[in-house]
Amino acid sequence: QVQLVESGGGLVQPGGALRLSCVASGSISQFVIMGWYRQAPGKERELVATITTGGNTKYADSVKGRFAISKDNAKNTVYLQMNSLDAEDTAVYYCNAGRFVDLDWFNHWGQGTQVTVSS
Fold first, then answer.
1. How far apart are CA 34 and CA 21, in angstroms?
2. Could you tell me how far CA 61 lies from the centroid of its own chain?
């Protein structure tokens, strides 16, 4: 059973920064893609950033230039560095990981970590 555990959320002032971490229960090399999604109150969950096994990254337009996704295979951890935060970034942030088991695709989610941007 794959487990993803997020941490690093909290309350930050506008213009501030936070780094989220997502630790997997096993090697992250088993995942074809890992990413961060977020869900604000009353809104649908949306993609924030993804990173592939090969290190290719993708970002939502709203966070390009402010957020950076990275991973540390040795620590089984994916990070999301968030800079220049504003109120629109307030949401629950979820870690996601996808992998194949034989020919079946499995999508795994963490429990989420709250990020609140407020003065």
1. 12
2. 15
